[in-house]
Structures are given as C-alpha cells and as structure tokens.
Design a protein that fits this description.
The complex is a heterodimer. Chain A is α+β, with helices and mostly antiparallel strands. Helices cover about 25% and strands about 30% of the residues of chain A. In chain A, strands 1-7-6-5-4-3-2 form a 7-stranded antiparallel beta sheet, covered by helices on one side. Chain B is mostly beta strands. Chain B has 2 helices and 29 strands. Chain B has a 5-stranded mixed beta sheet, with no helix packed on it. In chain B, a hairpin with a 4-residue loop joins strand 14 and strand 15 (about 200-205). In chain B, helix 1 (about 1-30) packs antiparallel against helix 2. Chain B starts with a helix and ends with a strand. The relative contact order of chain B is 0.12. The chains are: A alpha+beta, B mainly beta. The interface of A and B includes residues 41, 44 and 115 of A.
Amino acid sequence: MRQGADIAPANVAVTRRLFLGAAAALASFAPCAALAAHGASPLKVVETIIIDAPPEKVWSVVSDFAHADWLPGVARVEASGDDVPDQARRRLILADDGVIDELLTKRDAERMMLGVHREGDDVKRLPATNYTALITLRPSVDGKTEVEWKARFYRGHPTNDPPPELNDDVAIATVTALQRAYLAALKAKVEQR
Amino acid sequence: MPALVAGIHAKTMRRVARKAAKRFALAWMAGSSPAMTATLFLSIAIAPPASAAEAFITAQGADALSIVDLSKMETVATLPIGGKPAGIAVSRDGARAFVTSPEGKFLTIVDATTRKIEKRIPVEGGPLGVAASPDGKRVYVTDLYGRRLVEIDLASGAQRSVGVGAMASGVAVAPDAKTIIVADRDDNALSLIDALTFSRITTIQVGKHPFGVTVDASSARAYSANVESDDVSVVDLRARKVIATLKCGSRPYTVALAKGRIFVANQHGDSVSVFDAESLAPVDTLKVGEYPEGLAASGDGARVYVANWFSNELWALDAQTLKVLGKAETGDGPRAFGAFVRDAD
C-alpha cells in the first residue's frame, strides 16, 4: 500500500506519525455492502483548528462538497446531486484505488455548517462504523477562523464485548487521527502552504 | 454548590415569608381571628415547596444522568450511572426513574425525589429501551442483542423474557396496560406483546429500521420512527396494521404526542417534524439543536422537549405555538431515549 508520499505537504500542523496513521486508515478504506448494524453507544470526537483566513474563504473550500480532493489520500472525486442535502453524494477515489462513498446531510451557508455521512463500513480497514461528521466554522480573533470537526460513530464491533482491536478506544483513536489529518489538510489548502 | 442551594433555599423561604405576611395583613384587615391567621401562617410556612417538572436525561458520553429543572431550563443535578446509560423511563407517578446501561448490562433504579440510586439490576445482553407498566410494578427492557424483551417484577426482582425480533430497540406500554410494543429495528417490524400472558401476539411490518415507538393516550395507535426510510409508521393497534406512513426529515429517531399533534425528531435533519394527529397532514418542520434524539412531552401536553446529542442541549418547544421556549445544557451525549419527563407534583 502506498502511503505518505502522495498525500499532503509535509508542513501541516500535525505530527507525522499521527498523519501517516490517519492516511493509512483512509487509504485502505474499501467499499463493501452498506451494513447498518451497530450497537447501543455512539461515540463522539470533537477536534478544532485555527485557520489564518476569514470564515468566508474557509467556507468556500469546506462547502464545495463535490470537489473535496484536498482531503488527505484522495486522488479524485466523483460527485452527483448538486450539493443538495440528502441527495448529493461523492465518491472519494483514493490514491490506492480504494473508495469512500459519502452523503451530504447538511449544508447551511448562513451558519457555516456542513454535514457528511459515510455510507458503507469495512471495519477490517477503518475500525469504526456509521461515521457522520458535522463541520462548523466560527469567526476567531484577528480575522481567523475556528473550524470544528465533530464526528459521531460506533466502534467497529457491532455488539457488546468487543475484541481489543474493535473496541471504543481503537475507534476513538483512529477517528481522532483522521479528523486531525482532515483539519490539517484543510488548513494547508486554505492557507496555500 | 451548597452555597447555591442555600441561596435558593433562603430565597424560597423569603418568598414564603412575604406571602404569609401579606395574607396575615389581609386577614387582619378583614377582621378574622388571630387563631385563624396563625393557622394560615403555619400552613404556608410548613408546606413543602412543590417540586418543579424535571427531565431525566441520559448523557451517554458523560456516563451520567443529567436532571434538568424544566421551569428554569437548567441542569440541577448530575448522577453518575456508569455503563453508558441510554434508555430512560420515569414512572407515571414520578417516584422513580429507570435507566438502562447497555455497555454495563444493568438497569438502574433512581429515586426521582431524593435523586439517589435505589438499586442496580443486572440484565444480560444489551439493555437499551425501557418502559414502566402504568401501575409502576413492572419494568420492560429490550435486549438489543438477544432478540428478547425482559420483564422485571420490581417487588420480587424476578425476571422473565419473551422472544422478539432482531436488534430490539424502543419499547412502549399502552396506557390501558394490555399491550407492549417493541421496535425490532433490524427486522423492520414492531412486535406486539400481550402484557397479561407476556407472549408475542403478532408482528407488524413498518418502515426501515424502526427505533423509537410511542403509543397514544387512548391506546389506539402506535407510532414508530423509521430511521432508514425517513418516515413514521402509524399503526392501528386493534386492527394490527399500518394505516399511514408519514414522510418526515432525514433519520427520524423518536416520536412524541402532544396537543393533538405528532412530533418526530430527525437526527440528520437537525429538526422536529410536526403532523396533525387527526388528519395526519404535515404542520411544520422546526429547526432544533444538533442531532436530536430523545423526544418527550410534558404531562399536560403544553411542551415538547428534545435532547440534542451533538450540541449537548435539551430544548423546550411550545406544542401549540411551536416556538422555542428555552435551552438547557446537559452532560455529554444526551440520548434521553424514552419517557424522560417527570411532571411537577
């Protein structure tokens, strides 16, 4: 599996270890039948970053659901549905030919909020299921923008008593790394570094 | 915290004293006997303050129960529960709250008045949905993983179970105490259970992935929120069939009934869909907080409360005007899956 080399610039604001871990999880994500089976306890991860650009500028990148090729590990994007929530879908085609299918669930320009739901899970590669993200932009100091990337997901194991590789901690660690990588890539894209 | 409690207490006492003084003055002016006014004063002074309506919100991320004062829209107590609490049922008399912990595999019984944990009862599998019998003597718990509904006799502690469908989620007891309805999520069906014989009467196919289930006050209709088909199935309990399907927002999770209306929380829509319960016509779609989950009405039907999982808030909605009346911050990850409102005494 190729990883790292064809991803983002090196000067992003995350540790290389974390970045590579997330990229590996992303790049190895493959499609499978949409299985909705999950347990009783959704998990939450909230990550934020400050971007040195006004909210409008950040929003123009974040809200462009159909052209999210700035996401780490993504080679190109195929999209449909004209950015209309609950209709618009995108297929992220990864550098290793894996794909991720996502549905736009929310696009609120006024409040600068974007919602995305991942369709289809493969816990052998990403040890979390039913991933839904809510990205919110808020004005920060000195004309900068705070971007919050919140996720809701379940651990990889669909019932109680998970094996260690599919427990809550593994799911939280993986999604945390993933979201930090997303935010770092967004920052790099907007700040043109 | 004690200073705050003392402050509230002092304020209440001052208010009581002021009221008593006013009545005393009025009685004096009216020329009533000092004995009578003294009795009046005493009865006011010693009457315990009526408890406000409260919401018992399972905060799954916080591993706790957030108790929200609904007159102030403020979290006034946090009870550590453990085991990732999700389901909630307040008994009809408001004396107890029953909380499921699917990860801990137990049911917690909370004394709703003293806010103390009374008992913790082990329940095998993944206890999730919970409902109390109208007389408060039995509690019904769905086992998400075990294809069963568990009945717990509170006096004896005895448990028995009846087989239901796959991934049993929401549960509701009809107010006439005759029927129990279970949402069999992964079977796309409801199971109807005879409460007396505790046997499964029938199953009814509904929309895709029913999660929350609610029965109306006359025990005539049940409503299931079908997460994956974005609709609500309206079930006639006597005819045992779906009589209507209501299209709502994205990912409907739970249903509440108030003021002759049907309220549905839409997780992805960040909204509550409102329908007329008689005509079944859509009335409105209300914007609420992020990722709404639990939904419940006050006993008088004046208000509907919605727990917002992503934004950690409980919102109060006016069931008539459909205006937002207030918001309260809760513990992390409010699910509030069940009948979470305890009405004022």
